[in-house]
Amino acid sequence: MKTFEELACYQKAVEIRKEISLFCKDLPKEEDYKLKDQILRSSRSIAANIAEGFGRHHHQENAQFCRHARGSLMETLDHLNVALEENYLKQDKYDKLREMLNNGLKILNGYISYIQRCAKEGVPSVDN
How many angstroms separate the first and last alpha carbons of the chain? Predict the structure, then answer.
């Protein structure tokens, strides 16, 4: 693998980021510097952390950044919960976004497990 852009977890994170950006266009103006800002930042952080971890070229650091990405994914879910509670999001759209996040979580957890196995088994990282 030559670039983080080939990772399934990164590709899913980009998909999530795009869907959240679309959703945010429908938020009321009074949420611009509240919920909108927070959910945009957390959704963008998922892919950014995956990319940064990949760029570290070391299994343990890569896994750590992927755990940060997982935290950002969960933060994004919490912001979606708020949007649903505040009636900014209909249940069907929430369900679609939540399923996307759940799928992203599964893929990311699988990648973290893979990285940890590589570290444990002594598989060389990219710069070794």
Answer: 15
